[in-house]
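Dock magnesium ion; give full complex structure.
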Amino acid sequence: ATPMATMVGSTISAKNGVLYKGADVLEKARGIDVVVFDKTGTLTHGDMRLTDVVPVDDAVETDGPVADGGSSTSATDGGVLESPVDPVDLEADERTLLSVAASAESGSEHPLARAIVEGAEERGLDLETPTAFENVPGHGIRATIPRGEVLVGNRKLMREHGVDPSPVEATMERLEYEGKTAMLVALERDDGADREYELLGVIANADTVRESAKETVAELQARGLEVMMLTGDNERTGRAVGERLGIEPANVHAEVLPEDKADEIESIQSDGRRAIMVGDGVNDAPALTSAHVGIAIGSGTDVAIESADVTLMRDDPADVLKAMRIADATISKVR
Ligand code: ADP
Ligand code: MG
């Protein structure tokens, strides 16, 4: 890459809200074959809201796809949802479920955790403070509150602690088909010597897709690029969101552990294809480094921005196209 190209590119791009880092980025951003997007915080706003609180008894009673247990369900509009739980009138078991989950999650900075805590506070619940807290990356959390030890997370977290998630499977799947992130909640049962957990129920958060996400995917595909999604979220949730954005199921790589995101990029590039990775999270940092070009969302974490070659100042997925166009235009002009 020529320093001239970089200078021209930086000037053009600063005006356009696209920041390039390093001398050879403009050169690298040409000849791309695949664009891989992180889901949460990249294709979506990452601005989660608590939408569903379903105690285990309600989940078991309504073993059809359309549960209607008072505030435990919310209307869907076919998009990624923004339909908060009715703020008033939580029933007793709903209140217990939510306050246990939120108390445990008050030890976490994860966006899922913050949405749960906010959801509980908006409903006027008093939260307990965890005396012990453990993050289980890609799975959930384990925390000790005065009421006992709590697990909040996915099916795998439950199974690893001997909790059978099957009583709420139908509810989990319904929520996941809606594109929501559903989480199981279990509380330690006071059972003498052995620690046993009791499944309390399911809570779910929803996120909203960024305005330009769908048209960006379509335009990338129209240019002959392959578009993929990488997420730690459940397969069904990932596919539901992918479907709304025009990303085919085969191109949605879900349930990817944080430490495996970079490996996924390497395997995508293993046949010589060049990938752009677009991400925002701490989890995405190694993948941003592994990709031919890493692009960070401007409001993303510092680690993501440091690991990326390009930063999108406006958090707009459409600026991925702009970044590629600027690279094309600048390089051809200088040559
Ligand atoms: P991503 O940021 O790509 O969505 P993570 O690796 O952070 O993925 O999380 C993957 C999954 O692990 C989540 O979808 C959720 O099921 C579970 N999980 C992670 N953190 C938490 C948390 N604090 N509380 C509950 N579940 C969690
Ligand atoms: Mg993310």
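Observed: The chain has two domains: 3-45+210-334, 49-206.
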